[in-house]
């Protein structure tokens, strides 16, 4: 498999993801739990990308180009049913073996996502969910006074700006607050146990 073929394969995986997401937006199903078809696609994409990484190494811009590298990041971020794969990618970044590239923003998003899935506080405030009042808000952070300092250091906007952006995006995508937030939290925790994020 050469890098051009790898790039095309990764972009195809990303396009399938975005096409399904758009379909769920149009059906007003995006905020109604983790759609089974979407979960299955995320798992399939993660397994294929994992095999690619095992074969050619991490999918950097230098190897596969900007579009394919960014597509790989979307697949990694959406691989929430595959804890081992997400942690493997995080370890690659933390060990700094991605061809001397920092990828600080991607590292921040991935580490935050893993922290939230494990029920831990995030450091950069990149992950959002419906709060107890039914408003999209950042998931728990370790120290709110430090979040914007960390965000600005790696080139992200402020958490206040990002919160407005996320809420506007949800509105444009017809996302609505789940009917029963308490039941949803129970379902999420059961799912986290099932896939191995928590015990």
Structural commentary:
This protein is mainly alpha-helical. It is built from 9 helices and 2 strands, in the order H-H-H-H-H-H-E-E-H-H-H. It has helices at 3-26, 36-56, 61-64, 66-77, 83-94, 104-117, 144-153, 159-172, 181-195, and strands at residues 128-130, 136-138. A two-stranded antiparallel sheet has the order 1-2. A hairpin with a 5-residue loop joins strand 1 (128-130) and strand 2. Helix 1 runs antiparallel to helix 2, helix 1 (3-26) packs across helix 4 and helix 5 runs antiparallel to helix 6 (104-117).
SSE order and pairing:
Blueprint: H1 3-26, H2 36-56, H3 61-64, H4 66-77, H5 83-94, H6 104-117, E1 128-130, E2 136-138, H7 144-153, H8 159-172, H9 181-195
Antiparallel strand pairs: 1-2
Instruction: Give the overall pLDDT as a whole number.
Output: 92
User: What percentage of residues falls in helices of 4 or more residues?
Assistant: 55-70%
Structural class: mainly alpha
Q: Summarize the helix and strand pattern as letters.
A: HHHHHHEEHHH
Pick out the low-confidence regions: none
Strand line-up of the largest beta sheet: 1-2
Alpha carbon gap, first and last residue: 39 Å
In DSSP terms, counting alpha (H) and pi (I) runs of 4 or more, how many helices? 9
The geometry reads as globular
**Which oligomeric state applies?**
single chain
Portion in strands? under 5%
Count of strand segments = 2
Q: What summary fits the major beta sheet?
A: 2 strands, antiparallel
Over all CA atoms, what is the radius of gyration? 17 Å
């Amino acid at each position: 498999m050469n890098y051009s073929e790898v790039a095309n394969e990764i972009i195809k995986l990303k396009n399938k993801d975005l096409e399904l997401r758009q379909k769920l937006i149009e059906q007003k199903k995006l905020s109604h739990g983790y759609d089974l078809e979407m979960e299955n696609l995320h798992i399939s994409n993660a397994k294929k990308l994992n095999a690619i990484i095992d074969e050619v190494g991490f999918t950097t811009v230098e190897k596969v180009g900007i579009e394919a590298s960014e597509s790989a990041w979307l697949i990694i971020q959406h691989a929430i049913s595959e804890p081992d794969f997400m942690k493997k990618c995080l370890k690659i970044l933390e060990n700094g073996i991605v061809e001397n590239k920092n990828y600080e923003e991607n590292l921040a998003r991935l580490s935050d996502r893993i922290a939230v899935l494990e029920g831990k506080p995030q450091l950069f405030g990149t992950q959002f969910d419906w709060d107890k009042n039914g408003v999209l808000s950042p998931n728990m952070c370790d120290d709110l006074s430090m979040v914007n300092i960390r965000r600005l250091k790696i080139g992200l906007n402020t958490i206040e700006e990002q919160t407005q952006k996320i809420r506007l995006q949800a509105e444009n995508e017809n996302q609505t607050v789940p009917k029963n937030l308490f039941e949803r939290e129970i379902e999420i925790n059961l799912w986290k146990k099932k896939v191995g994020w928590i015990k």
